[in-house]
Design a protein that fits this description.
Four copies of one chain form a homotetramer.
Chain A lengths: L12 E4 H4 L17 H11 L3 E5 H4 L6 H18 L5 E3 L18 H20 L4 E5 L4 E2 L7 H22 L4 E5 L8 E2 L4 H8 L8 E3 L3 H6 L4 H10 L7 E2 L18 H13 L6 E3 L9 H27 L1 H9 L14 H7 L4 H6 L4 H12 L4
Parallel strand pairs in A: 1-2, 1-10, 2-3, 3-4, 4-6, 6-8, 9-10
Antiparallel strand pairs in A: 5-7
Helix pairs in contact in A: 2-4, 5-6, 9-10, 10-11, 12-15
Chain lengths: ~375, ~375, ~375, ~375
């Protein structure tokens, strides 16, 4: 079935190999689905209308593969890309699965572990660059602590900065066209992770050697775990000029990392996020970092992938309607939404502000009409207007 | 009863007038305690060993007071300070109680409200400066949204920046010795607040006109509401050189803003925070932004204040013991805690890292002894070692 | 504008006087709207299509009113009911606002407070009965603790049971046609409340003297504060035959008690709740325990009330479509949803179960198609199918 | 080192084989520790002073083992028990790890899966009975939903009841001395689990065929995930006479299931739980359902186990001191804690309550001294009184 919500390459949707390839292993149970060949993933995603596919180094090339094996794998993968026209917009490295990283990677207490992590990341950067990736995501899955005594956070941030600087140095030396995107997360698998939110990561960047090379990869699930508004986080990242990549999925607040299909929960926040990206004409990938429920077989995985993209397109259409809905626009005027763009500083500057008299009772009694506005948006979302 | 946990002025403890003065009004019930005269608050806190007292403009001078009333109030208050030797280390302004701010203050959609908010803040700065405050806290209690459609976050951040810049300008023009400290909070009273965490506020500062004038006032309860580690947040603020003030209290994760007595919940995070402040020899005020339970009469309020300070001193003593406990120090060595200070970059730089061979199995099998370390800290906290 | 989502009396919508009458007082700010006359509330709600109006004793009759005042107020209120045809389906009592209840009401440590609370409740029952209420809600807003040492929970439950038994006794003696509905809440205003969830209250009922007289009043916001599924809670209450009343509103997980307009957050859980009530042909009131944002003037309050009812009707229509959507019904078959109704016990009983051989690999490899099903529901909700 | 906190068999501590045997597999990484032989676990735990060891069927006997293998394993295990004097107080079954249970077990939509689950449970009951277990825990790890449309909760509760009834029937037929303990959990691994809290499970029991045979196994981490007070939950379970078993560990609110060492977080709630168990002279096992951090090697596991028991004994000593601390007892009197035991019903019954006059202002102005009391408890916990 093809309809107006059937994606095409122009929609710039991408998936991670690890998303459609997730076999369902969780803390309480083993794999429920067979391994997915990356080449099959490329072909299936291409058929569904995706633009690109992303990977951790070891999603594609198993850890410890010989140069020959690596070459053979890359060759076969590249052929799949060529056959389908699919791209690799982003690459990343897995610094969390192997036991060596159990105490951290870039911020491990042991310098040898830290260096090994940097080495592995540089190798992954090379692999990504080789396949055309221009964004390299950094998620520090094991950078954190349960026993706070064991980790000095300030020193750990020194080491985090040092590792990111080293990776930037590598990219500069090689002359790659590649930028970094930090992915914040508050907890899980560690009790508390470093750079736990979009805000903490944005602040961190300012201390780096080459801050222009580094931005953010905000993830819907990760911000939502902390109960924060994802669309607000994305807006602040855009405000700083630092939205380099995005991870779309779904999550309920205060739960384990759920990585549900985009829109499966939190549809309002999803809508405002889509509206923001579209209004900002943001030119990055609409990347889905999610996976199919564990109840699914292989076929369910493709239903999952299709659903992510459809929901984005449905919400994008609603964002377009939002802009042209007369009742909504009228309600925005009642809410004085447009007047937020007016500078607070008047012609007469601070002096004028200080000298003026404000009619506080009149300002206080004004009704902003948010109930009506919000209900209109809700009915737009529910498709009854 | 005086013991080693009885505070003195040297401990630099301060309270807000609004903390000991809280009358118990909440969403579900009215005042349970009579109004506390700020002058009495000064005397009582001085007797208990506090160093200073802080206030919102309208904690001291009622909104709408005439210049004569203001003068008389300030004169009487200053006399209490002089009699007791108490200081006013910090001042702030109330931009959340009056209905005029129901839709925001610095980021209200209505420019007149924004200007009124800046005017009120400048007046509060003058009041604070007059009484000797060198830190001015900014908590944007109504800067946020429930109906997301009504508030463009990026534009709101433009206005937020503009307002803070205007306040900085005012301080510079007047030549006050005063710095600003932003206080983040994730939600309540608004559905979602702007600058929801320490991280978001730290990032925001980098876009200001005079970033050196602005730092953070992290609050234990506010970070904890989002489930984030408060001591990690304070550590990152210190790392950026931006810890200008601190709000100590207690809170359970994912609840309404509880503002409990310091240490009443989350004793471990409280301990690591105290240890951090003491280890860093941070020279700011140990400020308590908390209030007595609603079950208390006036006497209970002073028990509450005494408890906040005692718990800090108890934890500070434990932090000192931590440094000298041989078993803990040995466990830190097992955890390789000290090796985090070693730069990751070796003499040979990135090239050396990339060329080296790492003994992954050996690194992976090492036991860091965190269970033992954490239990030792727990027993230190429980006073059985 | 009248459309198919314009409510009528047949839809059985009710509001509390305290909901449309909320003046916006919160912990951080005062009233933003004038007091609403209960008589006006009745007329406005009737015009909007509501069926009934509910109240706490002191929403209608101020605390301490003389018998004459009470009579006059009731007479005037009854006239409004008569003029509009509005009913009072439910009444309740306010055991949380006055300072006397600061340490609890039915479970206060002081026996005099407990007796006063029972007296006040009996008076409120009489008032409710006089105005035709057949459900009496009990929300123990101050039954709980911050300082756990001060409250023995087991003894408190003894007292809680005793108080509910006393109220039942009163109803039986008077021969009222009235049942009780307990309203659970996890926290706020107390640190931890007794009977924190629907489950705890359901269990408690079994220990009462007249368990048949007592059921539940689950509230969307209250269950959601704990991160629990509201529709699951309502389903379990129905399963026990204990859904006596319901409080519809909206809430984000892990936040202060938000009491937003129904559907403003958590639209999926709202949909499943509506579907459940409609599928179960539940004959109780669709009661809204919510309030308008603090940004609103008086007009916004009626937009709020209208929005609650419209959203319910929109979701009820979707529930109806769900039942007849062929693709959804097909997906339910793939999910084997209908087979859950088949008893697990076979004809041969336990022995047959134990003796049978199960084809585990075949059962394990089945794909339940939840991704497709869930996406279909999402698209139904979004109005694109 | 032996001190007064070194456990002995008389302290009735037990551990699950799966706790000390956890190899560190989580969603983001593989095993970090070698497999632990159950026989070694028995010996090590016995040396540390534990009383017993518990298991899921497949912790001891691998799924699919032949009768001969089973016999050999059980024989070897029993020998370890005999050599050490260790007991098996509790057994349970794993209905969550194998893919066949991905959509549920007792409440799976497919009747064959449900029957297989009952069969597996009966086998596990036999195994437990054979080794002397008198409590059988039921944790429904996969009983729940992500796609709510696929699971009718009311029908699922019918099936849940049926399965528990079948298991009771089995125990009655065999004449085992065995009771069941339901273990609630709000979420993870499923999006929402059935019987999410202690309250929901307590209510459920009342609908069973043999309610006397079934009680609760509350877990610290599981209640805490929802932000509920664990000690309150245990108190309510005791109040209903339904505390059949307990799972002690540690957890932060609103996070993934952390299963930390007892006392590692939430020390106050842990203290009140220990005080409750000791004051109630509860005669069940003090069972730890926790695991060592992933940073640990095999030695760290035994530090972890030692720490759990030590912390319990430290807190039990503090509970004893609480009872005899004159200042605390005096503060309890101020809080009128003892007066909660007085029946609310006076000699003259309801009539007396209704006819009495209460001095509301006097009752309202009383100060309960909770700040002082709570601080005293805090200082007791911190070991400075």
């Amino acid at each position: 079935m093809t309809d107006r919500f059937t994606p095409t390459r122009d929609d710039k949707f991408s998936f991670g190999l690890w998303t459609v390839g997730w076999q369902g292993v969780d803390v309480f149970g083993g794999a429920v689905r067979p391994r997915l060949d990356p080449v099959e993933a490329v072909h299936r995603l291409a058929e569904l209308g995706a633009y690109g596919v992303n990977f951790h180094d070891n999603d594609l090339v198993p850890f410890g593969a010989s140069p020959t094996e690596r070459e053979s794998i890359v060759k076969r993968f590249r052929r799949a890309l060529d056959e389908t026209g699919m791209r690799v917009p982003m690459a990343t490295t897995n610094l969390f699965s192997r036991p060596v990283f159990k105490e951290g990677a870039f911020t491990a207490n042991d310098p040898a572990v830290r260096r090994f992590a940097v080495q592995k990341t540089c190798d992954a950067i090379d692999l990504g660059a080789e396949l055309g990736a221009t964004v390299f995501v950094m998620w520090g899955g094991r950078e954190g602590a349960e026993a706070d005594a064991a980790k000095d956070v300030r020193t750990a941030l020194d080491r985090y900065k040092e590792a990111v600087d080293l990776c930037c140095e590598h990219v500069r030396e090689r002359g790659y066209d590649m930028r970094f995107a930090l992915e914040p997360k508050p907890n899980e698998p560690r009790g508390d992770l470093l750079l736990p939110t979009v805000g903490h990561a944005l602040a961190f960047i300012n201390e780096l050697e080459w801050p222009d090379m580094v931005g953010l990869n905000p993830e819907f699930a990760h911000e939502t775990m902390s109960g924060l508004s994802f669309s607000h986080a994305v807006a602040q990242a855009l405000w700083h000029g630092k939205l380099f990549h995005i991870d779309l999925n779904a999550q309920r607040i205060g739960k384990f990392d759920q990585d549900f299909r985009f829109g499966a929960e939190g549809i309002r926040d999803a809508f405002y996020t889509v509206r923001l990206l579209e209004d900002a004409a943001w030119d990055g990938m609409r990347h889905f970092d999610a996976h199919a429920y564990r109840t699914e077989d292989a076929a369910g995985v493709w239903d999952f992938a299709r659903g992510c993209m459809r929901t984005y397109l449905i919400l994008a259409e609603k964002a377009e309607r939002f802009r042209h809905d007369p009742a909504i626009q009228e309600a925005l005027a009642v809410a004085k939404a447009g007047q937020l763009a007016e500078p607070t500083r008047p012609a007469g500057g601070l002096e004028e502000i200080r000298g003026a008299t404000y009619d506080e009772p009149a300002l206080a009694s004004y009704g902003y009409g948010h109930e009506r506005l919000d209900q209109l948006v809700n009915e737009l979302l529910l498709g009854v207007r």
